[in-house]
Design brief:
With 999 residues, the protein is of the alpha+beta class. Strand 33 (744-752) and strand 34 (759-767) form a beta hairpin. Among the domains are: 2-22 and 189-243, no CATH class; 660-899, Golgi alpha-mannosidase II, domain 4 (Beta-galactosidase, Chain A, domain 5); 914-999, Immunoglobulin-like (Sandwich). Residues 517-595 form the Glycoside hydrolase family 38 central domain. This is Glycosyl hydrolase-related protein. Keywords: Glycosidase, Hydrolase, Metal-binding.
Length: 999
């Protein structure tokens, strides 16, 4: 019997591959094909259609990497008997795997109307004219190279236009008119669903035996030389198997059609814009033939590109949005990384995204759709709810290396206590094709069995785009109620979440960050882009603050358009394959140039606003944009007199080495450049005895896969310290050590901070290593079971030990401007100006005792997908502060990232702050004018220390009205309590408040 089953299954598989599939299209007639090679970047349809075209027969090579070739195809519409549909079938040279990672095309009619796209899984174009009428089609064919190489992870020159080569990548195979045999196609879909279901059923299941028998009988019913006429008989044989209903207790699946289009990854932004048009055109074409089909797409940026590039296609999308069938999702500008962007950046992801959807479609997404970002910050639930959203979805945590998330439907609680209803689809993919295997997996893995019976399956080709296909829709319709399968319902995120929330009254809670146990290298890869992001966030804060202050103080015009353009550049750069460092070289060439343009524009805004505030005269002003005092200048203000820096003394020690000291601290440095002692005034030793600090360490960095994404645990054992510099030079209160290693050079300058309370480090690296990781290590004599790391609008405490598998997997973690390890709240902080990756662990031995090893990850050198990643020059700044509380760490982070600006030739001696705020733990993260251009002042405030706090805010201008709002500046909650000239605001730990002050 076993042998009969295997033989029968092989016979069915051969029937599907060799007899049924080739019979789906019949009567092919070649179209006359001509081609024109676009010499540079893509052009419009009108420009392409006017060119001279050359003959282009099947078998012609085309498409050097990233080139566009336009095809002109002419012929006539074939007569289509009943049961057949006339189509054009076009194969640009597709391979059978990796849809979205190879050649693609966008098809236009003769008058320039976009029809649909061509991809490896979607090669047909409906022909709608009468039989015998002329056909003229234009195809914008993109020679996108398969950079990923079927996941070989080999270094490739294809990601850089300068090294990608000129040899054609593809062979044009066919362009025919043909007849789609709908009966045969439907039979193929029947087989696909039942065949997939059968293989997921238990081997001894009666249902499995019945399905195998029915499929075998259907194969026997198909006459090899008359597949069309015999297909109906085969379908009748299968009908009882397809009509057997699912059990009442069957798992229920909401199938949400989407296409996860990476806004840049193994292709540049330029190509993403075209992928969006192709995918959305495919979706609109499907909606013409299936009235039940609903499609979801996130990322307002992608809709904005479509509006700019294809306004007619955008108008068709808008019509479907109005019908409720094309559903904007997510509410963000792009599907951003959530570990690395600042709190204000994540706020703007929502404000820019939601406003676009509301202004262009009149809809506000209430879900957050982030299936592929590389872990989720514990600050996100509060931001989600404050933006007016209710639900959160992710899929990426299914990639965890060692631990499985314990829930699929749950409440996610952020660091401030805010909770958001969250779903993590058990299907474990965001590119489902609704196969039997995938549906069975969704049911089998669902962890809330017994409490609820509902999950979401995101289906449609993604990453490179393409979206759902008619075959996927056929699978959905056939599994709406099918014995042995979950029940499948075509749906939208909102429909799913509303039903899931109503169905599950008391879900479990996951508290804190959702750390991805994978892709830990993304906190470090492409350091220049990470510096560009951090610097852009800082100058945006300054530009908004001083422009708003100038508008309030002098009625200067506020540069709305320029600031909006700058924000859009920064928000796009925070897409989850750009900022994390996992894209091709072309992407980084583009974004780093964009950061330079943005910085120049913002510096102009800052300079103009400061000059407007300062006037012209003989004074000098120090402008402090930080929410803390710096150089003796009050927060958010400018003054003519700053406190002089506390002098630091440099002394050469007997026996070698040096001591840097002030009235607040002393640090000893040996001839190797390493710190051997660090003490605050009258304080204890803060370095672990026998373990020098300030040591650079090189690690082998050879991930098993996903080079730019991953740091593997095995490579942590390969540390090699840079023990002896080539030179150490003593200067004016500073030491400069130079190290030459491999083919790289590193220089570190060590001095004291202007106030003499911290050790400042400036690290300059000319980096040319390959597959190595550079870290800066500080073994400190602080016994901390947890380390605090700054995240958006607060900080998170992570264990320094590895007691559990979850702790062990968290061996590299993200932090923003500072990390802190402490005993009873005080210890040592390490602040930075552009670094995000850290590992903080217990260290020591029986003789020296136990302390905490704090290491910052500076540079990597992955080979894929950008073999030139991180090569060249870099500068990093750090501040090491002994006897620091968390508040001191916060202050050091602002000092390094928002240094005061000195402006000379000023008439004023003071620019008062637009608002004053106390106590010190409540900070103003943003000061701006309202987005509705009313002239109201908007403040983003947050509690930074993790304490319940009553804060007092005093405006520096006459206020007509004050209101608390959500992130979109809409009224939310009770008005703040007035107390004299100011307002009393109660904050819970890490709470964010948005306050709108009307003038």
């Amino acid at each position: 019997m076993h042998q009969d089953r295997e033989l029968t299954e092989r016979r069915i598989a051969r029937f599907l591959a060799q007899r049924l599939t080739p019979s789906i299209w019949t009567a092919p007639v070649p179209l006359h094909a001509q081609a024109w090679d676009c010499p540079g970047e893509p052009v419009s349809f009108a420009e392409a259609a006017a060119q001279d075209y050359r003959p282009f027969p099947p078998g012609s090579p085309w498409g050097r990497p990233w080139q566009t070739t336009w095809l002109r195809l002419t012929g006539s519409v074939p007569a289509a008997p009943d049961g057949f549909t006339a189509e054009a079938v076009i194969d640009l040279g597709f391979s059978t795997d990796m849809p979205g990672f190879q050649a693609e095309g966008l098809v236009y009619s003769a008058d320039g109307t976009v029809l649909k796209a061509l991809e490896s899984t979607n090669m047909a174009v409906p022909l709608t004219g009468p039989a015998g009428s002329d056909v003229t089609l234009f195809v914008e064919a993109a020679a996108t190279p398969n950079v990923i190489g079927s996941f070989s992870f080999l270094p490739t020159p294809l990601g850089d236009r300068e090294t990608a080569g000129t040899e054609p990548l593809y062979l044009f195979r066919r362009a025919d008119t043909a007849l789609l045999d709908r009966q045969v196609w439907n039979l193929a879909q029947d087989f696909a669903v039942l065949w997939g279901l059968m293989h997921e059923l238990p081997m001894d299941s009666p249902r499995r035996h019945n399905l195998l028998r029915a499929l075998a009988e259907a194969v026997n019913a198909v006459v090899p030389d008359d597949v069309h006429n015999s297909a109906a008989a085969a379908r009748r044989i299968l009908e009882p198997a397809l009509s057997a209903p699912a059990a009442a207790s069957a798992h229920r699946v909401h199938a949400v059609g989407h296409a996860h289009i990476d806004s840049a990854w193994l292709w540049p932004v330029r190509e993403t814009r075209r992928k969006v048009a192709r995918t959305f055109a495919n979706v609109l074409a499907l909606m013409e033939t299936d009235p039940d089909f609903v499609f979801t797409a996130s990322s307002a940026q992608q809709y904005a590109w479509l509006l700019e590039d294809h306004p007619q296609l955008f108008a068709r999308v808008a019509e479907r949005v109005a019908e409720g069938r094309f559903v904007p999702a997510g509410g963000m500008w792009v599907e951003a990384d959530t570990n690395l962007p600042s709190g204000e950046s994540l706020v703007r992801q929502f404000t820019f995204g939601k406003r676009f959807f509301m202004e262009n479609f009149g809809v506000e997404p209430l879900d957050v759709w982030l299936p592929d970002s590389f872990g989720y910050s514990g600050a996100l639930p509060q931001i989600v709810r404050s933006a007016g959203s209710r639900w959160f979805l992710t899929q990426k945590l299914s990639w965890n290396e060692s631990d499985v998330m314990p829930h699929h439907t749950f409440l996610w609680e952020g660091i401030d206590g805010t909770r958001v209803f969250t779903h993590f689809p058990p299907v474990d993919t965001y590119n489902s094709a609704l196969t039997g295997q995938e549906l069975a997996r969704a049911e089998r893995q669902f962890r809330e069995k017994g409490a609820t019976n509902l999950s979401l399956v995101p289906y449609g080709w993604g990453d490179g785009g393409g979206g759902p296909t008619r075959e996927m829709l056929a699978a959905a319709h056939r599994t709406a109620s099918l014995e042995g399968s979950p029940r499948v319902q075509l749906s939208s995120p909102r429909t799913f979440f509303e039903e899931a929330e109503a169905d599950y009254a008391d879900p479990p809670v996951w508290s804190g960050e959702m750390y991805l146990q994978f892709h830990r290298g993304t906190y470090t890869s492409q350091a220049r882009t990470k510096r560009g992001n951090r610097r852009s966030e800082s100058v945006l804060r300054e530009a908004e603050l001083w422009a708003a202050t100038a508008a309030v103080r002098t009625a200067a015009p506020y540069p709305y358009e320029e600031l909006e353009e700058a924000w859009k550049t920064v928000l796009l750069g925070q897409f989850h394959d750009i900022l994390p460092g996992s894209s091709i070289a072309w992407v980084y060439q583009d974004i780093e140039q964009a950061y330079e343009r943005t910085a120049a524009a913002l510096e102009t805004i800052i300079g103009q606003a400061q000059r407007e505030l300062a006037g012209s005269g003989g004074s000098t002003l120090v402008f402090n944009a930080a929410p803390i005092p710096l150089q003796g200048v009050a927060p958010l203000a400018a003054e003519s007199a700053a406190l002089p820096p506390v002098p630091g003394r440099l002394t050469e020690l007997d026996g070698g080495g040096w001591e840097l000291s002030s009235e607040h601290l002393s640090v000893r440095i040996d001839p190797s450049g390493a710190m051997t002692s660090l003490r605050a005034a009258q304080g204890r030793e803060l370095l672990l005895p026998g373990h020098p600090g300030n040591v650079f360490q090189l690690f082998r960095d050879t991930p098993n896969q996903w080079d730019a994404w991953d740091i593997d645990a095995a490579d942590r054992r390969s540390a090699a310290a840079l023990l002896m510099p080539d030179s150490v030079e003593a200067g004016d209160g500073s030491l400069t050590a130079t190290y030459v290693f491999g083919v790289s050079r590193l220089q570190e300058r060590v001095c004291l901070s202007p106030d003499g309370r911290s050790v400042d480090l400036v690290v300059t690296v000319d980096w040319h290593e390959r597959q190595k990781l550079l870290k800066l290590a500080f073994p400190v004599g602080v016994l901390a079971d947890r380390a605090a790391s700054e995240i958006q609008f607060g900080h998170i405490q992570r264990p320094t030990h590895a007691n559990t598998s979850w702790d062990h997997a968290r061996f590299e973690t993200p932090a923003h401007r500072w990390v802190h390890v402490g005993e009873d709240g005080e210890g040592i902080s390490l602040a930075n100006d552009s670094t995000y990756g850290y590992d903080i662990t217990r260290t020591g031995n029986r003789d020296a005792g136990t302390g905490t090893l704090v290491r910052a990850s500076l540079l990597r050198a992955p080979l894929f997908p950008d073999p030139g990643a991180d090569q060249g020059g870099h500068v990093f700044r750090f501040s090491l502060r002994p006897e620091a509380a968390v508040a001191d760490a916060v202050a050091e982070g602002y000092r390094l990232n928002l240094p005061p600006r000195t402006v000379s030739g000023c008439a004023s001696t003071q620019v008062p702050p637009v608002v004053s705020l106390s106590p010190a733990g409540v900070l103003a993260e943003a000061v701006k004018l309202a987005d509705d251009r009313s002239g109201d002042v908007v403040l983003r405030l947050y509690e930074s220390l993790g304490r319940h706090t009553a804060a007092f805010l005093e405006p520096g201008f006459e206020v007509r009205d004050a209101a608390l709002t959500d992130l979109l500046e809409r009224p939310a909650g009770e008005a703040p309590a007035r107390n004299g000239r100011g307002y009393v605001l109660d904050f819970r730990p890490f709470e964010v408040k948005t306050l709108r002050l009307s003038r």
